[in-house]
Design a protein that fits this description.
mainly beta; Cathepsin D, subunit A, domain 1; 2 domains; six-stranded antiparallel sheet; 3 helices; 26 strands; 5% helix
C-alpha cells in the first residue's frame, strides 16, 4: 500500500534554489520536523527537551557525522513508535546529536526499505507507489544504501550521490582545481552538516549537467573536500547532488529494489 506524505520545502532566502526538504513526524506522541535525507545513513535527533523521554542505548559505532565534524555521534536513543503519515516504524533508533544546530534527520535506516517518489513540483513524497516512470535505470548504492546516479557534463562524468538532504550540491575541491574553466566563483556561504558543525564554504556555479538523458541548468554548489569521505569498498564520488538540481524534476528512487527513473 502506498503512502502520500506532504513535504515542507523550506527555501533559503539567500541562496538560489537552496531548499531543506522536511516532513512532520510523530515520535512517541511528540511532533518533530525531520529532513528527508537520502545522503544520511542513520536517522538522528537533536538532544533536548523533545528527546528527554526516549530510551538511551549503549553507545555503538560512530554515527553519520558530517563533512566538517571530526567524529559522528555515538549516543543513540530508541522510541516506541515513529509515525509519518500512514508510515509506522516500531522501535526506531536515532543518533542523538548534542549540537543544537544539528538538523533532525530521517535517514536511510528507514528510507532504504522503500520506493521513494519525490514529487517536488507538488511538494509530496509517495512511498511504495506504482506510478509509471520513463525508464527503470540501475541504481548503484553504497554499503549503507546511499543512492548514486551518473552525472554528465562538458568535462566528463561524475558518479554522484543523490542527496535529498543536501540543501545545496557539493562538488569536490579537486574537481574544481582540475577544471577551473568550468566553475564560476559565486561567493561564499556558511555550510552546516549533519552533526551541526559549520564552516564557511566557497560557492561556484555548477555547469549544466545531464542525468539520465535530461538536462539541468547551471546551479549553485558548495566546494568542499568530499572525495575522502568514501568508506572502504564503496563507490567513489566527487559530487553530492543536492536540491538546486533535484528540485527541477520529479523522481522515483527505489532503494529497496535498486532502480531509479523520472516520474511520467
Amino acid at each position: 500500500m502506498s503512502t502520500v506524505i506532504p513535504l515542507d520545502l523550506d527555501a533559503d532566502p539567500d541562496l538560489p534554489d537552496a531548499i531543506a526538504v522536511r516532513v512532520v513526524a510523530e515520535i512517541d506522541g511528540t511532533i518533530h520536523s525531520l529532513i528527508v535525507d537520502t545522503g544520511g545513513a542513520r536517522s538522528g535527533l537533536v538532544d533536548g527537551p523533545l528527546t528527554a523521554g526516549l530510551e538511551r542505548l549503549t553507545p555503538q559505532d560512530p554515527g553519520g557525522g558530517g563533512v566538517f565534524s571530526r567524529a559522528g555521534s555515538t549516543e543513540r536513543v530508541t522510541a516506541r513508535e515513529l509515525r509519518i503519515g500512514d508510515l509506522v516504524v516500531e522501535r526506531p533508533v536515532f543518533d542523538l546529536e548534542p549540537n543544537p544546530a544539528a538538523p533532525s534527520l530521517l535517514g536511510l535506516d528507514v528510507l532504504r526499505r522503500h520506493r521513494l517518489d519525490f514529487r517536488f513540483y507538488a511538494a509530496l513524497l509517495e512511498l511504495d507507489a506504482e506510478s509509471p516512470v520513463d525508464e527503470r535505470r540501475d541504481l548503484v548504492q553504497s554499503s549503507r544504501g546511499h543512492p548514486y546516479v551518473d552525472v554528465a557534463w562538458a568535462g566528463g562524468a561524475w558518479p554522484a550521490i543523490w542527496d535529498s538532504g543536501a540543501s545545496v550540491s557539493v562538488i569536490d575541491r579537486g574537481v574544481v582545481a582540475r577544471h577551473p574553466e568550468h566553475f564560476r566563483p559565486a561567493g561564499e556561504a556558511e555550510g552546516t552538516d549533519a552533526s551541526g558543525a559549520a564552516n564557511e564554504l566557497p560557492l561556484v556555479l555548477l555547469p549544466e549537467v545531464t542525468i539520465g538523458g535530461r538536462r539541468f541548468a547551471p546551479s549553485i554548489a558548495a566546494v568542499a573536500d568530499i572525495a575522502g569521505l568514501v568508506r572502504p569498498g564503496d563507490p567513489p564520488f566527487e559530487l553530492i547532488l543536492g536540491m538546486p538540481v533535484l528540485r527541477h524534476a520529479d523522481w522515483a528512487v527505489d532503494l529497496r529494489d535498486g532502480w531509479w527513473g523520472y516520474l511520467a
